[in-house]
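Fill in residues.
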């Protein structure tokens, strides 16, 4: 009688070499979203929502992914509750359906990011950078060719509005993406990330976004501290030198009156990317970090002082824009942030607890015996206070606290964290949450900072149950 056969050793399923269909569909939805005006308009929004909801339905079929969805639902539940209360107790409910749909899409994106295996999160982050690259390229193209809607004229200069067709929304993507790519370059030393950071900075400069510039400055200072002076001194000069080469001709030919110099501008952008790529090969031979950074500061000050290249930006450093829809007799004034905020605050005081309801904000004021109207506050936190009151602001704070408490790796993955912070800072001065692709994009990035749960904690799913890996 033969000896009994020893039981086979249990097999361990290794993760796939790439992302699953679910994660690819979500990133594909984001590509569609940024190519179609942020999925802002009706049919675009419907297609975008269907794609993201499809990812959520697939996740419901697998236990590990359901756990991620439950965690995401917990995080956004305070916002859902505040929206329900505001809808029930206020009169303006016209945008309630869109509000709840956006919350659902954000929850799915957050869960999808959390469900990505740790070994695949760098790849998922690269997918986010790819989406941002589309925005940067189309913004640069719009200014270089003087072509609408990828470029738009504001106060006599072309601004890169990108495929999102809104310059500040483009800045809200490419500004944080520049810091994200810089962080990846600092952590890995890879040239590709430095080149991407240069591309994003040139794209950001094309937008000439004031609020975006302030947010980018703050997160850049934080990135310098987290990367360290020495590491920053090795990498930043390559990125900034390439950015200068690419951005100078772009700004020089951004004037409305001038003819586009498409070939010159695009050649300069490509040359800037090449400068960064080549210079990164000599990062170990860079001068002392302090010397490198000081030289760049001096060069920037000299450029501003002795040329007119900064004029398009400096002319816009006010809270007010003189742009009106339809000419001087139009009833709608765009860009008058001070008046919008003042009028919005008066509306907050009219209904401070639950707000006026999740409808379209209608702001009206008079100036110089003319009546003006605005439909957006251009401050998402103040607009939340108008629509949802103090209850909405508290709900947002609680959701943020719950996100941080979900065993997050906010400092370990500081490039992701700073990109998200940049978006949140910029949201205080622009219209960024109502462009559906943007909150979904940054929710997915936030999910990638969360510690995986259950079978994902070890980086290897049980029994092949993962739908996103």
């Amino acid at each position: 009688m033969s000896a009994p056969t020893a039981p086979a050793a249990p097999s361990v399923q290794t993760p796939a070499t790439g992302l699953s269909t679910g994660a690819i569909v979500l990133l594909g939805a984001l590509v569609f979203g940024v190519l179609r005006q942020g999925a802002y308009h009706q049919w675009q929004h419907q297609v975008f929502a269907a794609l993201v909801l499809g990812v959520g339905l697939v996740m419901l079929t697998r236990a590990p992914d359901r756990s991620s969805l439950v965690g995401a639902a917990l995080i956004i539940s305070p916002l859902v509750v505040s929206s329900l209360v505001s809808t029930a107790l206020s009169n303006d409910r016209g945008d309630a359906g869109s509000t709840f749909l956006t919350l659902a899409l954000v929850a799915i994106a957050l869960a999808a990011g959390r469900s990505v295996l740790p070994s695949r999160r760098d790849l998922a982050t690269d997918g986010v950078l790819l989406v941002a690259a589309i925005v940067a390229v189309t913004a640069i193209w719009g200014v270089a060719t003087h072509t609408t809607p990828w470029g738009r004229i504001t106060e006599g200069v072309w601004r890169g509005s990108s495929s999102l067709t809104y310059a500040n929304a483009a800045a809200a993507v490419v500004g944080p993406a520049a810091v994200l790519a810089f962080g990846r370059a600092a952590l890995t030393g890879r040239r590709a990330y430095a080149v991407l950071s240069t591309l994003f900075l040139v794209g950001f400069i094309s937008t000439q976004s004031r609020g975006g510039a302030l947010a980018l400055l703050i997160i850049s200072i934080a990135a310098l501290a987290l990367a360290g002076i020495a590491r920053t001194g090795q990498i930043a000069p390559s990125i900034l030198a390439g950015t200068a080469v690419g951005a100078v001709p772009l700004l020089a030919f951004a004037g409305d009156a001038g003819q586009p110099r498409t070939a010159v501008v695009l050649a300069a952008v490509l040359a800037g990317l090449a400068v960064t790529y080549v210079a990164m090969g000599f990062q170990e031979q860079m001068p002392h970090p302090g010397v490198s950074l000081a030289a760049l500061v001096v060069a920037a000050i000299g450029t501003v002082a002795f040329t007119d290249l900064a004029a398009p930006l400096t002319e816009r450093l006010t809270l007010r824009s003189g742009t009106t829809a339809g000419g001087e007799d139009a009833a709608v004034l765009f860009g008058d942030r001070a008046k919008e905020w003042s009028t919005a605050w008066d509306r907050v005081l009219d209904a401070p607890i639950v707000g006026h309801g999740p409808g379209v904000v209608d702001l009206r004021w008079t100036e110089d015996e003319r009546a003006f109207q605005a439909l957006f506050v251009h401050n998402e936190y103040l607009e939340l206070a108008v629509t949802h009151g103090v209850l909405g602001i508290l709900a947002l704070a609680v959701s943020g606290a719950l996100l941080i408490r979900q065993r997050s790796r906010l400092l370990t993955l500081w490039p992701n964290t700073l990109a998200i912070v940049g978006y949140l800072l910029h949201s205080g001065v622009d219209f960024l949450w109502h462009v559906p692709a943007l909150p979904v994009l940054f929710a997915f990035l936030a999910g990638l900072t969360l510690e995986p749960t259950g079978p994902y904690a070890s980086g290897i799913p049980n029994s092949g149950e993962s739908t996103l890996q």
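Residues 32 and 243 are 28 Å apart (CA to CA).
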